[in-house]
Automatic annotation (TrEMBL):
Keywords, in A-Z order: 2Fe-2S, Iron, Iron-sulfur, Metal-binding, Oxidoreductase
Keyword check for Oxidoreductase: yes
InterPro entries, per database record: 2Fe-2S-bd, 2Fe-2S-bd_dom_sf, 2Fe-2S_ferredoxin-like_sf, 2Fe-2S_ferredoxin-type, 2Fe2S_fd_BS, Beta-grasp_dom_sf, Diverse_Oxidoreductases
Protein name: (2Fe-2S)-binding protein
Signal peptide: none
Metal-binding listed as a keyword: yes
Location of the 2Fe-2S ferredoxin-type domain: 1-76
A GO MF label: metal ion binding
Domain of life: Bacteria
Pfam family, one: Fer2_2
């Protein structure tokens, strides 16, 4: 048994300590917004926040989340998080998603990136590309991702 703090609430999950956070979220808690892509920390589809930092949940064991706050795309985009809500709105405005599979991970990386910026800082295209470079989109929606992140930063 492990206790995870997910989206502001404690959850007891019946998983081994070395179970990836991804599977605790999806299988034990039913939070399927977080996606499985490569399972090897390479694609970013499984990105969630751990104490506000974007992490790969497919290679992060439940034991590493002990005493920390996990935030998933469900909470980041439910309107209660100002930056997450701005990113979500920009995603819709710019019609970013094509197949959509990587988008929750993209949104989580973008949200953590924007929160890491000093107040009032408008990131350059190069800074956005660098921040988002670990999230792969096989549909190639990178131009729309860049535009949406820039818009959400305003
Ligand atoms: Fe975790 Fe690809 S599924 S990085």
């Amino acid at each position: 048994m492990s206790t995870l703090n997910v989206n502001g609430r404690p959850h007891t999950v019946d998983v081994e300590p070395d179970t990836p956070v991804l599977w605790a979220l999806r299988d034990a808690l039913g939070l399927t917004g977080t996606k499985f892509g490569c399972g090897a920390g390479l694609c970013g589809a499984c990105t969630v926040h751990l104490d506000g930092q974007a992490i790969r949940s497919c290679i992060t064991p439940v034991s590493a989340a002990d005493g920390k706050r996990i935030t998933t795309v469900e909470a980041a985009t439910d309107g209660g998080d100002k930056v997450g809500a701005a990113v979500h709105a920009a995603w819709v405005k710019h019609d970013v998603a094509q197949c959509g599979y990587c988008q929750s991970g993209q949104i989580m990386t973008a949200t953590a990136f924007l929160k890491s910026l000093p107040p009032g800082k408008q990131p350059s295209a190069a800074e956005i590309d660098a921040a988002m470079s670990g999230n792969i989109c096989r549909c190639g929606t990178y131009a729309r991702i860049r535009a949406a992140v820039a818009d959400a930063a305003k």
